[in-house]
Specification:
The protein has helices spanning about 20-30, 35-45, 50-55, 85-115, 130-135, 145-160, 175-185, 195-205, 210-240, 270-280, 285-290, 305-315, 325-330, 350-355, 380-395, 415-425, 435-440, 460-470, 480-490, 505-510, 525-540, 560-570, 590-605, 615-630, and strands spanning about 55-60, 65, 250, 260-265, 300-305, 320, 335-340, 360, 370-375, 410-415, 445-450, 475-480, 515-520, 550-555, 575-580, 605-610. It is of the alpha/beta class. The protein folds into four domains: about 5-75, no CATH class; about 85-240, Substrate Binding Domain Of Dnak, Chain:A, Domain 2; about 255-400, Rossmann fold, CATH 3.40.50.2030; about 410-630, Rossmann fold. The strands form four sheets. A six-stranded parallel beta sheet has the order 6-5-4-7-8-9. Strands 13-12-11-14-15-16 form a six-stranded parallel beta sheet, sandwiched between helices. The protein binds FE(4)-NI(1)-S(4) cluster and iron/sulfur cluster. Iron/sulfur cluster binds near residues 59, 60, 66, 77 and 78.
Length: about 625
């Protein structure tokens, strides 16, 4: 909804704050004049630039910036670039930005994994079974190898794929055979994790690749290097190191902050720092320090995807999603916000300054003025985590007036692909067969993933409305990222919400005690959905390739470049994906037609654009119905 457009500068009464909890906190915050992104959206006197929004502003060289108007001859670029070239170039760079984030995240995970396997970091190889499965899936002989030796071999093999120049990525070989053949035929099999990004930056430089389709193929190749490469590496090795998620109860929303404990929020993405903080929070030395200041302990709560990582694996609560990061601090009850990388708004620093809260940056890649920087190194993870917590403990006596809302909601998270396999497949024979059977017999119509960010420019609770409609229509809903948190706030991640599901879905899930919406983790964990989809294909009865599955994805409030990279790897894997309310190629008719229609012929799945929840639901349900019809299972 474009409500943001109506706001005049400084008209505070028209600031639309999203979520009940955010409104409650900001109304009762102990400090007046807390400014959040919602206020800045309202206060902007200029509307978003239409060229930027539609993807037709080019500033790739200094003859520009050139604003292109599709179809107007005098409004092509100085170099002659037309709307399709500029939109495709910009789109490719968005994918590159998003994919690079996941690649660097994955690199960090592999480095910590190797340090762990060598006994140089305070973590352990928790899931030996998954380690063996991962090793075998990438062609490593597991016989007679110690857990540590095997882990070193796996870590080194995957690490080498970052800088690899030729050949394919190991995990790509997990995809259904016809899919791999299609990628080969199209020439878009990723050659190395990092190489594809460099090539996008090169090809989008002034005067290089000027064919939109060729550019979009490279964007697809880079996205695949993310989904079937970086993100999958991050998820799989994090599971091996920190434990594969199993169903776990916890709570989400700002009310998880505690009156009598030192509140430490951990915000960003990489699980490595958060896991160390989790370990340190239980350390006797730290608990002793807490006692000295009159606190009962450390309350570690997540924000954004770090939250999803430690919720899934350890059951730590989530204090807030992306649109709650400033508001969490506005309670005045947070001693420290510890951040690593991605999705951290610079303004958290200003809000922290209004309280006793210390903002601590930990990645040398991500510093913020006003924050304390403590460089994190996995080799000394526990010592650093303790140092951070001690600083937070020192702040506890300084906590002044504060307001913690009572709001928080029960959730059950931890639906890794292994868990789904096990829960829906039965205790004795884990398999996707029962899920496939229930899709074939129509109790479950299909599967829909709602992923990605929440966003200050979208004021409707899109995720929630879409999820409710889908489960009522017997569609199994999978969620990740901030979409998962925002849906969690409304109770849909709890088995009690099953009464909102349609009769078929309800019958299947009630029998196994699952909630109607399954939390599959953080944004890199979208790779779990790729594996689950592949398993459904392999199990049989639903076609030979992913594009045939009655499955669909959506990111209705996307904000970050990562969401676009994720969307593109789903599309290139054969899944129809719905984004909105805007999409950064609409300034070019040719590229729009290519992404929204022709990609369907190329990949079996394409992009779709929707604005309202009902439009999302219609496209998603139609996609599922069409797939059922094509499979001949629609009775
Ligand atoms: Fe960031 Fe991942 Fe988006 Fe949330 S969903 S706003 S990317 S934290 Ni990933
Ligand atoms: Fe303009 Fe072409 Fe330079 Fe882009 S590359 S800024 S379209 S002249």
């Amino acid at each position: 909804m474009d409500t943001s457009r109506r706001f005049k500068k400084g008209n505070e009464s028209e600031v639309l704050i999203q979520t009940e909890t955010n409104r409650e906190v900001l109304k009762n915050a102990p400090v007046e004049n807390i400014v959040t992104a919602a206020h800045r959206v309202a206060g902007r006197s200029v509307e978003p630039c239409l060229f930027g929004q539609g993807g037709t502003c080019c500033r790739n060289c200094n003859m520009g910036p050139c604003q292109i108007i599709d179809g107007v001859e005098q409004m092509i670029g100085v170099c002659g670039a037309d709307a399709s070239t500029v939109a495709a170039r910009n789109f490719a760079r968005i994918v590159a930005g998003g994919a690079a984030s996941h690649m660097d995240h994955a690199r960090g995970v592999v480095m910590a994994f190797l340090a762990t396997a060598k006994g140089e970091a305070p973590y352990e190889i928790k899931d030996g079974i998954k380690l063996r499965q991962v090793a075998m899936s990438i062609g490593i002989d597991v016989a007679e190898k110690s857990k540590e030796d095997l882990a070193i071999e796996v870590g080194e093999k995957l690490m080498a794929e970052f800088g690899q120049q030729e050949g394919g990525l190991s995990f790509v070989k997990r995809a259904p055979k016809p899919r791999q053949e299609l990628w080969k035929k199209l020439g878009i099999g990723p050659r190395g994790v990092d190489r594809e990004i460099t090539e996008i930056m090169h090809r989008t430089h002034m005067g290089v690749d000027q064919h939109y389709e060729n550019l979009l193929f490279q964007a697809a190749r880079t996205a695949l290097a993310d989904g079937w490469g970086a993100s999958m590496i991050a998820t799989e090795l994090s599971d091996v190191m920190f434990g594969t998620p199993v169903p776990i109860r916890s709570r989400v929303d700002i009310g998880v902050l505690k009156e009598d404990e030192v509140n430490v929020t951990v915000h960003g993405h990489e699980p490595i720092l958060a896991e160390a903080l989790g370990m340190a929070a239980r350390d006797p030395e730290i608990l002793e320090e807490c006692k000295k200041v009159g606190a009962k302990g450390i309350n570690l709560a997540g924000v954004c995807c770090t939250g999803n990582e430690i919720l899934m694996r350890k059951g730590f609560p989530i204090a807030g999603s992306f649109i709650q990061q400033e508001v969490v601090l506005a309670t005045g009850a947070v001693e420290a916000m510890v951040v690593d990388v991605q999705c951290i708004m610079q303004n958290v620093s200003r809000v922290a300054e209004q309280f006793h809260t210390e903002l601590i940056t930990t990645s040398d890649k991500a510093k913020i003025p006003g924050a304390t920087h403590i460089s994190f190194d996995e080799h000394r993870a526990l010592d650093i985590a303790k140092e951070i917590l001690k600083r937070a403990i020192k702040k506890f006596p300084e906590r002044g007036k504060h307001f913690v809302p009572v709001r928080s909601m029960d959730v059950v998270a931890g639906f890794s692909h292994e868990t789904i396999n096990y829960m829906l497949g039965g205790r004795f024979r884990a398999s996707y067969k029962p899920l496939n059977d229930n899709i074939i017999n129509g109790r479950i119509r299909g599967v829909a993933a709602i992923v990605g960010c929440d966003n200050y420019r979208v004021t409707e609770e899109m995720h929630v409305e879409i999820a409710k409609e889908l489960i009522a229509n017997d569609v199994l809903v999978l969620v990740t990222g901030c979409a998962a948190t925002s849906i969690g706030r409304t109770g849909l991640l709890s088995p009690e919400a099953l009464d909102q599901a349609g009769p078929g879905l309800r019958e299947v899930l009630e029998a196994v005690g699952c909630p109607p919406v399954l939390h599959m983790g953080s944004c890199v964990d979208n790779s779990r959905i790729l594996i689950a989809a592949t398993e459904m294909v392999r199990t049989g009865g639903l076609g030979e390739d992913i594009y045939q599955l009655p499955a669909v994805g959506a990111a209705p409030q996307w904000m970050s470049e990562k969401a676009v990279a994720i969307g593109q790897y789903f599309v290139s894997s054969g899944v129809d994906v719905v984004f909105g309310p805007t999409f950064p190629i609409t300034g070019s008719k040719v590229v729009s037609d290519y992404c929204f229609n022709k990609m369907k012929d190329v990949y079996g799945g394409s992009w779709h654009l929707a604005k309202k929840p009902s439009e999302f639901v219609n496209i998603m349900v139609d996609t599922i119905n069409q797939a059922r019809k094509d499979l001949g299972i629609d009775k």
